[in-house]
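Consider the following assembly input.
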Amino acid sequence: VKLTGSKSVNNNPSNRFIKETLHKAHSFETLLTRIKARTPQHGTKSLLDTAKAVSSNIRTSLKIELKANKHLSDEQIFELCTRRNLLLDSIHQTVFDVIQPTEYTLYPIGIIAAAEILIKDFVQNFALILNPYSGNTYKINAHPHLLDFYRDLLSPYIKRKSKEENKLPDWIVILSYPAVQSTNILLHTIMVGHEVIHLKDYVSQISSPLITTGQVKIVKKNVRSEAKRLNDMEPAKLFQDTQPVLSSWLSEIIADLIAIRTFGPAYLFSFLSLSIALGVMDKYSDLHPSSRTRIILMLDELRNLGYMRPRKTTQRITEELKYWTNYTNSQTIRPNGAHYVALNSIMRARKRIKTKVRSATTGLEYGIDDFQKEVPNLLKYLKNGVPPSEIVDISFRSSKPATLAGILNAGVYLHLEGMKEIRELLAVEKEPDMEAMTKFNELLSRSIEISIALKEWQKSPS
Amino acid sequence: VKREKVNYQSSILGSKELEERLYHKDIENRLIISPLISKDIRDGTIDIRLGTKFIMTQRTQIPYIDPIRSESDEIMKSLQRVDLPIGSSITIHPHMMILAATLEYICLPLNLCASVVTRSTYGRLGILSATAVHVHPGFRGCLTLELVNFGDTAVLLYPGIRIAQLVIYNAGESEIPEKPKYHLVTEPEFPKLWQESDLEVLRNLEKRASKLRITPTTFL
């Protein structure tokens, strides 16, 4: 499956993932240098130096292997990238299991504000913590009424809540992300798009009502046929195993589909990056269906939002979506046991899932019309080395802040095109691709921060 | 980059001209100040706000910074980056210096230059906001303010306060760079002493001078 069009030649998906892998290692090395400058312990300094050398070796080996094998298929290149990413994740974990995250770049403050605004939509009184950690996936943990939980355990030997205790937030929300990806703004779409929706799902009960009596009947039917196929499998045991898998997969799919409807293609491309880096395109676990399954469902939603229709301003996106549609259809791996039953049951309930998601996102969608109104304007700014934070109306001499989805989609568009303009503006001789990607992320981070600040100022009556 | 024909007379842009340049139809010739809060343009100047990214000096074991011998590691040890979200504050103590980025991202077309001036409101508190006041044509990025408290009282600084003003001029022909290189700065940067162009010359001169230095033993 190949992309067409002149602009696609230098930045097809496989080239893009090579650059992303190299940039991940590059960012890791920059981070290690910064941490080393304020580390007093000699032993820690040696660990940081070793990790830097490992990362540099990972980068070089990828370049050499690609040079030695010039006719690799996209799938083979993705595999090479996955292998390097997993090695990077492993050394990253070794470092961040030992080191306290004190470096300021580990906390993208624009993202904190953006996530807070999204959470405020369904939880009022909360405190948000961004947690750069040693793992390689995104996570959300939320503790509702933490103090009350412990007070209940201590009851009845407890005094009334003090004034200070009454002021404490109802929820403590922790968003965890890989420390090495702290400055990768596009990847954070997963955090603000998908992880935050898990909390919304919990609070607003979106996925759980989908498991109805009718759904259970479908599951039981699938259990019987799968148990028969597997011979030695007890149907009752298989049914029991399927239940947690089904509920977990449903919540993942609901979060994906809400994220794709509210953030448009930006979410899909972040998800693709993470899936290839983790090598989970065809892996099923008890918590997550395979990425291929999830992408098929997401592409359906993008089709519904109008992104598959070829238009001049979204040409690059449409080309890519075609590529990924062909890619996901090209091969499928059949899971076994509970995973198969869950997958089959979900696919049969697709229509109901879509209806639920669409009703949960009414008025919040980022469809093709929103994209066309906003992204070309923002892209013009980004290509000129300006953070795409506001849309300027020349005729009315006014401006309005860009939406978070608009900023992320403008970023994705330029990323798909290869960031040639930023490379030219920077005109650096050493590692121009890496420098351009770093600068590109800084501009995006800055624009999220500026657009939020601008909204605050425009809200103020004075 | 397309260069618009201008009358190369160095003159300050008034409010009307500023507005013309801020909403110029051609993005490459547009004066971009983002975020632009309309009430910040007054009397031919544009107020600029304190951003969220800072570099603070800190006490370390390094005895001094030698501008011709300092390595990047050494400078990074003596300076610390701080990020503050809008709504929080930072304290500037008497005789303390803080490097801060502006909230605004500024983009000057090739025929405009600017200078940064402290707002008198803060100047009267003893806070000076800029020592490197000239902004060259074609600059793209957040400005770095060198904030110094010359007063005797500590002052709290909040990201978002209008700390300085930008005066925009038409650029004289000699000021326009032929091939501008953009850094697209979004945060204050560490001083890059190790990248100074004439370091080698200065080191050689210093070496020669130390050989020639007359010490009391010469007379013995």
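The longest strand of chain B covers residues 45-57. Ask yourself how this observation constrains the way the partners meet.
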